[in-house]
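Good morning,

Both structures are done.
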Amino acid sequence: MGGACRYFHPNWFTRYYWGFMASVNLAGFMADQQYGVDRSKNPNIMWPWWHEIMRKKEKGEIPMEMPGYMLAKFRNECEEKWTTQRSDEFSDFLNVMEAE
């Protein structure tokens, strides 16, 4: 039936495909270890700007019902529409993040 020279051997997928995927995964892990990539999930490190907005809301500098996207520097098209519609409601607080 073709023996070892057959191109699509029955064990081809399990042996070579999964072996290649495992090698890629292992190489990525070794690179992370070599260069000291931290894989811990700490939201206080990753999102400091959001925590700054939340602290300002807790202090009362920003009203609690004000959406966070109105303070973000980048907004998509839909958020721009909502910001223009509600800008008169929160006009005093729109520049509170740039004040410092």
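Second structure follows.
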Amino acid sequence: MVDGAWWPYSHDAAAELPGLIAAVDQRLQRTTLLVGVQRDAWQSIPHRIPARGRQVRIGWFRHADPRVITFIFAAGEPVVLLVIPPGTTAGPAEAELTAQDTAGLSIDDILTVERLPPDPAPPLRGTAADSLACWEDEGGSVTDQEAPSSTRRPSAPA
């Protein structure tokens, strides 16, 4: 079960997570200690991200559901957010972000109800040849990600 939804612009964890952590901390008035992500669903996953005078650990898990991201706090229950695939068109994504009747539904049920597409794996997770073909230099890589649309995407849980 999920507690909300998030629609990132890309699969780049280093670029996407700082804003999400700040928004979740502010909205829930909690202090995030750890963010859990599925390793193969994200690119550029740092070990830690600075947030309001502290370092938030980022946990990379191979056996986690790639469709969710989990927040662990200093106090209280964890929060699980459904990750709306970055390439999703505005209509279905916004419907999920504003959905009111998803309480108690599984991730598969939510995706079916909202008709969201399954999220393909990011382009850099593949064979060694595929990775080398996309590699730009020692500091980064070239991907096939589209530029973000002009639609404003909320970065806090729904």
